[in-house]
């Protein structure tokens, strides 16, 4: 791992407003999570299923917010190479295009991991202190949901980095981000077999809770599917970036 290249990517972030985009992601999901419980006529902080309301809110908020903003993060971090002929400049210093993509994924991946985990913790703390939920939280289910969403977010991020690196016109990458948002939301109404066909469909598969009948109920988490997605994504990202290494910058 080229630590100097990763450090260089973090240095670029200061001029690309990556922190601002990340803050918008976190706050938007928090707002949608709170709106879900506030707007529910059956929600009660004393109910045993109260935490499921916030989990249902995050299960809706993350697919609505993250896919497009992940595209924005990847596009901003990668477009700078197209604009400043950065691919060639870094190739002259011994860093291949594939190596640049891997460095970008590592740097942005740390940001996305922090934002995903931070969002989950912020919703948890807000539910306890602001909403005043009394029953104990199921930390295993909460952590499992966070882990599944983290896997999907990183896979989507990796895909957008590859697209942004390959295509000069970043409107294409942003268009895919919009399409991904639509797929992430509408996959909640599709059969699981169909949801498995795209990375964005895994947002629907990883829903931790939903409103059913007269209240919010917890849903089983797709640990095997998330693990399989991660393995396939790692293999494909490695193969594609390796092919980038053998192309001219």
Element layout with pairings:
Elements: H1 3-13, H2 18-38, H3 50-83, H4 86-92, H5 97-129, H6 139-166, H7 170-186, H8 192-195, H9 201-205, E1 209-212, E2 215-218, H10 223-245
Antiparallel strand pairs: 1-2
Helix pairs in contact: 1-5, 2-3, 2-5, 3-5, 3-6, 3-7, 5-6, 5-10, 6-10
Transmembrane segments: 20-38, 50-73, 105-127, 139-159, 171-190, 221-240
Organism: Brevibacterium sandarakinum
Keywords: Membrane, Transmembrane, Transmembrane helix
Folded structure, characterized:
The longest helix is centred in the N-terminal third of the chain and has 34 residues, at about 50-85. This protein is mainly α and about 250 residues long. The mean pLDDT is about 90. The two termini are about 20 Å apart. The protein has one domain (about 5-245). The chain has ten helices and two strands. It has helices spanning about 5-15, 20-40, 50-85, 85-90, 95-130, 140-165, 170-185, 190-195, 200-205, 225-245; strands at about 210, 215-220. The radius of gyration is 19 Å and the shape is elongated. It has a two-stranded antiparallel sheet. This is ABC-2 family transporter protein.
């Amino acid at each position: 791992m080229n630590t100097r290249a990763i450090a260089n990517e973090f240095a670029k972030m200061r001029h690309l407003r990556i922190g601002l985009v990340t803050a918008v992601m976190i706050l938007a999901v928090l707002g949608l999570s709170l709106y879900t419980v506030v707007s529910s006529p059956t929600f009660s902080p004393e109910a045993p299923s109260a935490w499921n309301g916030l989990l249902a809110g995050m299960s809706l908020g993350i697919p609505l917010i993250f896919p497009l903003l992940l595209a924005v993060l990847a596009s901003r971090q990668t477009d700078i190479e197209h604009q400043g002929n950065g691919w060639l400049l870094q190739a002259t210093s011994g860093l291949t295009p594939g190596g640049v993509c891997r460095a970008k994924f590592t740097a942005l991946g740390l940001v996305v991991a922090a934002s995903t985990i931070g969002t989950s913790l912020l919703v948890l703390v807000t539910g306890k202190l602001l909403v005043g939920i009394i029953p104990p939280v199921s930390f295993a289910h909460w952590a499992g949901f966070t882990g599944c969403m983290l896997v999907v977010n990183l896979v989507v991020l990796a895909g957008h980095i590859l697209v942004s690196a390959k295509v000069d016109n970043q409107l294409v990458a942003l268009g895919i981000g919009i399409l991904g948002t639509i797929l992430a939301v509408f996959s909640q109404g599709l059969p699981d077999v169909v949801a498995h066909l795209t990375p964005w469909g895994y947002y629907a598969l990883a829903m931790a809770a939903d409103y059913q009948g007269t209240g919010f109920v917890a849903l089983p988490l797709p640990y095997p599917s998330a693990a399989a997605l991660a393995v396939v994504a790692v293999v494909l990202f490695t193969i594609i970036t390796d092919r980038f290494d053998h192309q001219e910058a």
